[in-house]
Design a protein that fits this description.
Elements: E1 14-16, E2 22-24, E3 33-38, H1 45-56, H2 58-63, E4 66-72, H3 76-85, E5 92-94, H4 99-103, E6 107-112, E7 115-120, E8 123-127, E9 133-138, H5 145-163
Parallel strand pairs: 3-4, 4-5
Antiparallel strand pairs: 1-2, 3-8, 6-7, 8-9
Length: 168
């Protein structure tokens, strides 16, 4: 499985979301930058802390004109219960067949207590307005991650503003 890197085109997708609608990544491009985070399972301790961390930082992402999307292979119904239980106001996307997870290189062979199994490696991607990946975070540890993503987004936006030619 190939992992993506900064500069790669983000794989496009359309997936069902926790709000009952379908979300098409292509519909966001050119309008907002996208924070796409992959997590293993609804209602588990690490995934709950991560989701709540993104929710707590949502105002900062909105101020930076970015949208947050969570993605796992859980069902839409599971996502709806998870979002309701923790007051998550951003979409959670359901990738039941793991095709999007595979396209982003996050569906990998994992090991836990000597047991091997396929699962989602906690990962986050910042996708730019042009549909290219600004930054990839594979194998994320929850503590401090949301803050690191927001800081990386702001750094990328600042760098982009500096590169823009000034009008006379």
């Amino acid at each position: 499985m190939v992992e993506l890197k900064a500069g790669d085109k983000a794989p496009l997708f359309t997936l069902p979301a926790s709000d009952g609608k379908s979300l098409r990544l292509g519909s966001l491009l050119g309008k907002k930058e996208v924070i796409l985070y992959f997590y293993p399972k609804d209602n588990t301790p690490g995934c709950t802390r991560e989701a709540c961390g993104f929710q707590e930082a949502l105002a900062g992402f909105k101020k930076a004109k970015a949208v947050v999307l969570g993605l796992s292979k859980d069902s839409v119904a599971s996502h709806q219960r998870f979002a309701e239980k923790f007051n998550l106001s951003f979409p959670l996307l359901s990738d039941l067949d793991t095709e999007v997870c595979k396209a982003y290189g996050v569906y990998q062979l994992k090991k836990n207590y000597g047991r091997e199994y396929w699962g989602i490696v906690r990962s986050t991607f910042i996708i730019g307005l042009d549909g290219r990946i600004i930054a990839c975070f594979y194998g994320v540890k929850v503590n401090g991650h949301v803050e690191a993503v927001l800081a990386t987004l702001k750094e990328a936006q600042t760098a982009r503003k500096r590169k823009k030619p000034q009008s006379k």
